[in-house]
């Protein structure tokens, strides 16, 4: 649900890189849930690996909005340089008032408007940082849970009897022949001619 909520606001802000990342995250989460329900440990392992990637991505988003390491929140990196859109929260955050001023009096800027945002109770970059931090927290919890489920499934597979399952009777059995029948077969192999062959051996 948190990923879906984030996807909606990224769509509203035309943030194409986060949109793609959120879409992949939603698909992997569904895959992990399917693996848990359908007893598929491999799917859960894929989810666990993805959580590491997801945490790395969200750390990058935090660094992007906090402008760590030369990154700039005003760059077009998250929109693939397709547009100059910013986060939806930059104009629609809590307490923000959006004002438009006509630029018709300035040469070359006719039919354009200047947009100013004032009165924001919380700057939009901090909202994005909180979103990413929450996603990291959920991912860490999901990773721990995925590891636990995989360990449980592995223990169950190790304790399961693959030959007979949980059935007390095995899938195959060996017909035990009576002792006297086995003795008779051994006697015929040693003395195929019967007592006459035995008398000849005594001579």
List keywords for this structure.
mainly alpha; transmembrane; Sodium/potassium-transporting ATPase subunit beta-1-interacting protein; disordered C terminus; elongated; two-stranded antiparallel ribbon
Overview of this protein structure:
With 203 residues, the protein is mostly helical. The chain contains 7 helices and 2 strands, in the order ααααββααα. The protein has helices spanning 2-12, 16-37, 41-65, 89-92, 124-159, 179-190, 195-202; strands spanning 97-102, 113-118. Helix 1 packs antiparallel against helix 2, helix 2 runs antiparallel to helix 3 and helix 3 runs antiparallel to helix 5. The termini are far apart.
Brief overview:
Helix content is 58%, strand content 6%.
* Main sheet specs: 2 strands, antiparallel
- C-alpha-based Rg, rounded: 36 Å
Low-confidence stretches: 161-179, 197-203
Query: Total helix count?
Result: 7
Helices and strands, in order, run as HHHHEEHHH
Structural class, please? mainly alpha
Strand content: 5-15%
Helix content: 55-70%
Measured distance between first and last alpha carbons: 97 Å
- Which shape, going by the Cα principal axes? elongated
How are strands sequenced across the largest beta sheet?
1-2
SS elements, strand count: 2
The overall average pLDDT, rounded, is 77
Transmembrane segments: 16-37, 44-68, 134-153
Membrane topology: Multi-pass membrane protein
Protein name: Sodium/potassium-transporting ATPase subunit beta-1-interacting protein
Main location: membrane
